[in-house]
Write a structure and sequence with these properties.
By secondary structure, the protein is an all-alpha fold. It has a single domain, classed as Rhopdopsin 7-helix transmembrane proteins (Up-down Bundle), CATH 1.20.1070. The chain has 11 helices and no strands. The longest helix has 30 residues. Keywords: Membrane, Transmembrane, Transmembrane helix.
Length: about 260
């Protein structure tokens, strides 16, 4: 039974990766000028989640051992999910808004991530493979390894709290947007509400992991290996990817952004 559930979790996650990849490709091929920034930002956020899911499946199945150079490379990009999601919402609901003067400050965690992955990137191949053997056997080592300038658990914690701040700001944008005084079709706001709901669930599922990292690292390894929790995470990612795919295929944002544009 447990093996069947593990296989189901892997199948759901890989199917999600494929759907998300196709959805992102469709969006990039069908960009509309008036929502170009929003669609690009959605693609960045979805792409980072895609990479996260793919690498996790590779670790979970042990396939990552054959591709040691892929491990640990996503850390900088995961920091982009929060700001990309927030600004995608802003440019979708308020299409005439612009990036703030100091927008580059949002990239500082990304730069931190790039710097922190350098020790692993420059390590000998034998050391990378030895680490991955440990990570596949005990995922706790993905948090405890020393291939970085800071304790790896702080990446999880910092990303979570930054993402929470961006999420609150994202919901505020949705709340203050008044469709009565907006040229946008009502479906645009519904689209962004769905997006915010998915992002909220994404953070909710990380809560137990972050709390365990703060108070009990041994428990965090159990959480990342528990088959029932993995099933829920894989199911969530599959549904999110299905939404990314369907919304790109049938209702791309640019086709109904303005009330006087026919879908």
């Amino acid at each position: 039974m447990e093996n069947a559930l593990r296989n189901l979790a892997v199948a759901l996650a890989l199917t999600g990766v494929l759907l998300c990849l196709i959805g992102v490709a469709i969006r990039l091929l069908n960009l509309r000028q008036h929502n170009r920034k929003a669609e690009l930002l959605i693609c960045i956020a979805a792409g980072a989640l895609l990479w996260h899911a793919l690498v996790y499946v590779m670790i979970y199945t042990g396939v990552i051992r054959a591709f040691p150079n892929l491990y640990n490379k996503g850390i900088p990009f995961y920091y982009l999910i929060g700001p990309a999601t927030f600004y995608a919402t802003q440019f979708s609901l308020f299409p005439h808004s612009k990036y703030p003067k100091y927008w580059w400050l949002h990239l500082l965690p990304f730069v931190l991530g790039v710097i922190d992955v350098m020790p692993y990137a420059m390590a000998p191949l034998t050391e990378k493979q030895a680490l991955l053997d440990e990570v596949v056997q005990d995922m706790k080592m993905g948090v405890l390894h020393q291939f970085g300038y800071i304790d790896q658990k702080w990446h999880y914690i910092l990303r979570f709290f930054l993402a929470f701040v961006y999420l609150m700001a994202q919901w505020r944008l949705i709340y203050v947007h008044d469709g009565r005084f907006s040229p946008l079709a009502p479906s645009v706001k519904s689209y962004m509400v769905w997006y915010a709901c998915f992002y909220s669930l994404h953070l909710l599922m990380q809560t137990s992991l972050v709390l365990s990292l703060l108070f009990n690292q041994l428990q965090s390894s159990f959480i990342m290996r528990d088959v029932y929790q993995v099933i829920w995470v894989s199911l969530f990612y599959f549904v999110f990817s299905l939404w990314i795919f369907i919304s790109a295929l049938y209702r791309p944002l640019g086709s109904y952004a303005l009330k006087d544009v026919q879908a």
